[in-house]
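pinging the channel bc i need a second pair of eyes. not urgent but kinda urgent?? the chain im working w is below, pasted from the shared doc
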Amino acid sequence: MEREAIDVTAAEASMEKDVINRQQPHWEVVFEKACSRFGDEPSYPARKAAAIFEKEGKRKILELGSGQGRDTCFFASKGFHVHALDYTESGLKALKEKLQSTGLSDSIVPLKHDVRKPLPFENDTFDACYSHMLYCMALTTDELEFLSHEVKRVLKPGGLNIYTARSTRDAQCGTGTHRGEDMYEIVGGFIVHFFSEEIVRHLADEYESLEVEEFEEGELPRKLYLVTMRK
């Protein structure tokens, strides 16, 4: 019976992993259907991050999960140089089309990359890293630990890692289909990893400092953490 239970658990874990891996083609379709899925105005976290970067003289920025580029273009318009990473072809295509119309091509380098793999940069490359709701996608805690370590590796000493993630206080947390840990597949087929205060603190273990702000966004409204960590 014990061996049978282990086999069942392993099978369930494999099944959940397959479901999680299908998020990439799901996002491809989402971005193909709407050229500005989240609008064109910069998000609140991007505006706040830009103010911090400006104040501290952070000019070379790494953005993870850039999507269709609403925050990317905002950073570039403020004079920052941005390497924008996303794992969808359709998202990067939309970003490149925006670059042609805005004249910001010289300030943005779009790259296709899956953050579950090592970041394609040398140590101490960037002044800061920014990501809006990338951390709370379908990433396990192990994958998030790896990502936070990789971000720290490519940041210069004193560099900032600013990210947002949906909170376990969010109204959609616990709804839909459970996909392991605090991950739930909610309306629309999106898997969200909802963050507790504990995981926020845990991912900051390698960093020198941590600041956390709670804010709301969207119609639900979504409840999020805005996390700032310094190398």
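so Residues 1-13 have pLDDT under 50 and may be disordered. and Residues 2-230 form a domain with the Rossmann fold fold (CATH 3.40.50.150). — does that match what u expected or am i reading it wrong
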